[in-house]
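Q: I have 398 residues here and want to know how they pack in 3D. Can you give me a structure?
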Amino acid sequence: MSSARAFAARPTLLFYCQHSLGIGHLTRSFALVQALATCFRVVFLNGGRLPPDIQVPRDCELIDLPPLGMDDGHTVVSRDGSHDVAQAQLKRRELIERCARMLRPAVLLVELFPFGRKKFAGEILSLIRLIRRQPGAPAMVACSLRDILVDARPDQQRHDERARWLTDRYFDAVLVHADPGFARLEDSFRPKQALRTPVHYTGYVIPAQPTERAVSANQRGSHLLVSAGGGIVGERLFRHALKARELLAEPLPMRVIAGPFLPGAHWAALQNAAAGVPGVELLRHVPDIVAQMRSARASLSQCGYNTALDIVVSGVPALVVPYATATENEQSVRAQRLASLGALRYIDANELHPSRLAQEIVQLLAFKPRVATLDLTGAAHSAQILHRWHADSLRVSA
């Protein structure tokens, strides 16, 4: 059988992903796609703005919806100047429903919802209802979920009850991309009634890594690597890192990776602050942050899902300042748990100021991280679970 015919013979998996603030959800989803494409025809509904130069996985059919996102105040905003939010929502729904009718997928994988993305519920639930009623066999529906959820909302109990009801009503399975020895769903999700929907722990999902030997301390560079994921909420960390560097007794080379979504005004301000400063290098975006961490003396960053795993994989001595607000505590919980394992150091975002950061950087340079033995096979395991699930459904219906 030719490769083209083999590809067409695979069952179709429709993957809905709405990355709203940064790029973490998209990065994890693309890592999943790479594994899923070995056994499914993967069609990817991309609801957010694609970062420049990002590599879309091979064997993935990408459908870009009019991009929407969330600002720091959790308001839906259009990422496309040619559409306002209402226009984008209407066009998105038309595209999603047309795609579902054309594909008649065997599996629908929805990233985060209903544990998040409440403001996108209309188009997601419409999609699920449509594929449940499609001619032939209805699609199976699964949720793709990160390790730790936000659990600091003012209406947290109501949110959890609603998510539990929607999951039991519309979903066949929940894939939690975590090592259950490190984080379990019930740690941050506490409805009054337990979920009836099966929950599968897949292990952590990381992008495919080239085979590299561990880097010893004397093979590392002399610079501090400063990063903040996509960069959309990284300005404060970058600004304080530059000021803290000025307080160090000895000059420390610093490489700052701003991220593709750092707002233009913040990027310009960062460039002005670093202009003419010897030993400071600014980069807008890099294709491989793990390679950057492997070559750095130490790392300063936030603690999103992907960044935390990049730190674990690279083995870099790391200090994290988790992104946190009154209602966003996911990164703080992850940072505290990794710090308790000795895998990194962390300080609370409320304690971030140049003098404290300078002290922490000095201690970081002498820090030797312990290896965090987390299950990192989540991408392959997720594909195996969904493929086996689909195969079992075919046997039952035969």
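Q: Anything worth noting?
A: The domain at 3-206+376-397 is CATH 3.40.50.2000 (Rossmann fold). The longest helix spans residues 378-397.
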